[in-house]
Amino acid sequence: AQSVSQHNHHVILSEAASLELGCNYSYGGTVNLFWYVQYPGQHLQLLLKYFSGDPLVKGIKGFEAEFIKSKFSFNLRKPSVQWSDTAEYFCAVTGLAPRGGGADGLTFGKGTHLIIQP
Amino acid sequence: DAGITQSPRHKVTETGTPVTLRCHQTENHRYMYWYRQDPGHGLRLIHYSYGVKDTDKGEVSDGYSVSRSKTEDFLLTLESATSSQTSVYFCAIGRTGETDTQYFGPGTRLTVL
Predict the structure, then answer these.
(1) How many CB atoms lie within 10 A of CB A83?
(2) CA A114 to CA A63: how far, in whole Å?
(3) Which stretches of chain B sit within 8 Å of chain A by CB?
(4) Which residues in B87-100 are b (16+ Cβ under 10 Å) and which e?
(5) Can you list the residues of chain B whose pLDDT is less than 70?
(6) What does the mean pLDDT of chain A come to?
(7) Could you tell me how many CB contacts below 8 A there are between chain A and chain B?
(8) DSSP A8-50
(9) Measured distance CA(B8)–CA(A17) in Å, rounded
(10) B79/chain A closest Cα distance in angstroms
């Protein structure tokens, strides 16, 4: 069974600080990796995703993530955070679907609650 | 906007009553999912569907059933609601052409008293 671990449950930063949120996964095969963001009171929005190719992926709002296969990691980064980045961040993984062409569902980490202080 | 609506958006019910949550999509996607979100647990998959009348169980399916009689609608039913099913329920779709990427609806907040 696959699992996802997010190391930091709560992170507090000041505006303009750099951000790195850790994510490690456990899965025996090829995986697809995602970061989602949930702003207060809203639904999940896709930040970025990795399927294959360049292990450094760029997403929306200046976020990026690096897939390190040897470490089973997919850490999220942003060089300079803003107050509007206050939100909950979820790392998720899905393996290749046995039926081919579709996903059997995402496995999520427990989330990191990020607070940016002005 | 992924063209997903959920109804109702909020519901309060009593233990032992049946509850049905509806997810409706406007984009004719094959894959649909139900998750629940609880503090400290992230999101967990309840059930999913890979076509009309084709469904399968997820990680936390006990106490829930689903039906999909039309492509656009995916229903989640709690046959006899319990307080442990108090949660926020999210529906998601897997977009055709990027089937491993899921897009989420606005959620339904369910309180079971």
Answers:
(1) 11
(2) 14
(3) 30-31, 33, 35, 40-45, 48, 50, 56, 58-59, 90, 92, 94, 99-107
(4) bbbbbbbbbeeebb
(5) 1-2, 96-99
(6) 89
(7) 60
(8) -SEEEEETT--EEE-EEEE-SS-EEEEEEEE-TTS--EEEEEE
(9) 40
(10) 23
pLDDT value of residue A26: 87
Least confident range from A8-12, A103-107, B29-33: namely A103-107
What is the C-alpha to C-alpha distance for residues B53 and A112, in angstroms, rounded to an integer?
36
How far apart (Å, rounded) are the C-alpha atoms in residues B65 and A39? 29
Contact A105, A2 (CB under 8 A): no
- Which residue is closest to B95 within chain A, CA to CA? A102
Q: What is the identity of the amino acid at B97?
A: G
Residue type, B80: S
Indicate the residue type of A55: P
The whole-number pLDDT of residue A100 equals 43
The answer to whether the CB atoms of A90 and B43 lie below 8 A apart is: yes
* Residue contact B104–A44, C-beta within 8 A: yes
Contact A17, A32 (CB under 8 A): no
Helix (H) or strand (E) holding A88: strand A87-95
List the one residue out of B85, B84, B83, B103 whose CA is nearest residue B93: B103
In the prediction, which pLDDT does A34 show?
94
